[in-house]
Amino acid sequence: MFKKMLIANRGEIACRVIKTARRLGIATVAVYSDADRNALHVREADEAVHIGPAPSAQSYIVIEKIIEAIRATGADAVHPGYGFLSENAAFAEALEKEGVAFIGPPADAIQAMGDKIVSKTLAAQAGVSTVPGHMGLIGDAGEAVKIASGIGYPVMIKASAGGGGKGMRVAWNDAEAREGFQSSRNEAKNAFGDDRIFIEKFVTQPRHIEIQVLGDRHGNIVHLGERECSIQRRNQKVVEEAPSPFLDAQTREAMGEQAVALAKAVGYHSAGTVEFIVDGERNFYFLEMNTRLQVEHPVTELITGIDLVEQMIRVAAGEKLAFGQDDVRLNGWAIESRLYAEDPYRNFLPSIGRLTRYRPPAEGPQADGSVVRNDTGVFEGGEISMYYDPMVAKLCTFAPTRLAAIDAMATALDDFEVEGVGHNLPFLSAVMSSERFRAGRLTTAFIAEAFPDGFHGVAPDATAARQLAAVAAFVQQVVQERAAQISGTIGNHRRIVGSDWVVSLAGGEHALMLEDGTTARFEDGETLSVTSDWTPGRRHAVFTVAGTRVGVKVDLVGPAIRLRWRGMDVTAHVRSPGVAALARLMPKKAPPDTSKLLLCPMPGVVTALLVSEGDMVEAGQPLVTIEAMKMENVMKAERRGAVRRVAVKTGQSLAVDETILEFE
Predict the structure, then answer these.
(1) Which of 200, 288, 627, 632 is an active site residue?
(2) Distance between the two ends of the chain, CA-based, in angstroms?
(3) Is-catalytic flag, 288?
(4) Confidence band (pLDDT; 50, 70, 90) for 529?
């Protein structure tokens, strides 16, 4: 077994690898850039080596700097995590020359499978089902349009190298093919240093289902079942689960056999994933093979009981797999929610800043029989940087059944506190409550179809509105009682706190009486018991409302109470009946007019200005390109108009809502 392992990565995956290494008695070395000097993975490792400036192109993906760190620390093995150098054949070869073990597959397998054009050819030769498309290199946008129209729209334009949603576009017509080709090429060049592009048929009503494979250096290869990864935005996964609610045993076996056949065809060892697109008739087509550990590997670990990182280490050390295919059992159900620093209310655009509050739910076995796991690489007070992927944590739940795992996830999301940056917790909660998700009716278009006008939060239904009204009244009663105690008495009289309240929230009013501080009696006679140990100052509390657990994030905002629960974000005003009557007479403040401004929707850098002052633009015309979190975002005109003022310059860093253009 290895004595010291360097982890050529950062964030949550570095922390994840450190946990297994520590359990196996292997010392660990972290590497870090300027931006990660105080990162959690640096704190967790036994040693840490600085490798350069914040941009990954100057630090994490510079092979020479990793080799220097290996030499400086005497590490005898390297785990690459995922992303960065994990699928870089030259890196694996450099480690071999250095006499250091690469905890991953052989370089020639990385080379073959890392090139999507070559991998599809090899997959077809190995008898794996493949999607129709053009696997040759494409020279320019004009050729891309010709090829796309020949295949037939819609098509997927993809970078040959890389992954993680970078360099991918769906085109439905010639114009989108032309623009998508150029954007995909730019992203691919910036992210991977390789701008080769290919085009394939886009399968409609697709599911993204992948097979986990694991092989040793002695020719033994098994698969560990599948993961459903269909819920995606911008081609990047958001929610994953294992197993898939769609596959039957026959399809699972066929997909597993093809995945193993492909792995054997390229002489594979270590952990890897064969990704498929599956249509509504359970026809499946090879998408790509990821020659590394996947982000979503925890759900497979939870249903199989197999530590994939440990197996990768043992395989790299020359050990045989201790189990065969017949020994693999899929037990229960696991869900993973990726917590991102992004704003779901702004089309999931990235967010950066300091985590002023970061309180994950309690991990381990829960009272309801479920299990909670949270893989993270951040801490309260840490920074979310613009230089790297915006994922904050991977929250996982396990239970005997799918619905139980979903319910456990909903509860865990209720209890997850994040402040300081925009985040997608409300969206993840909304997914768990979606009838379509709970029924397992999924495609890669789930987000676009379930939220066609974008995500605007969850509006409380009648039942939820009353539950929240009862919670708000309880909170107000506690606040007022505390204020009365602090103010003391005047003479022999103490200020009396009333029990009649009018709660305004989500556009409605709820008149109620809070009897004995524990029973909300509404004006129609319905009663809801409400209890909690919440006290002023606590930002999260568990309320029991009519026997239902309601884990709410509570914020006192001036005279209002902000409540967040299950994707709902409501501001409640709790007033006495007399004050409520006066409040109805108050005029509503109109929001500022921004109709003539183009505002930056995310923190990022201006990479291209496509218009000048005085230009007349048409609806749909590209105006500016913003790069954020390694993604290129083209902003377009919503309607025809003249540019009055250009407020930014190329290369300028912008904050959210900063003015870019002003129109006449």
Answers:
(1) 288
(2) 69
(3) yes
(4) very high
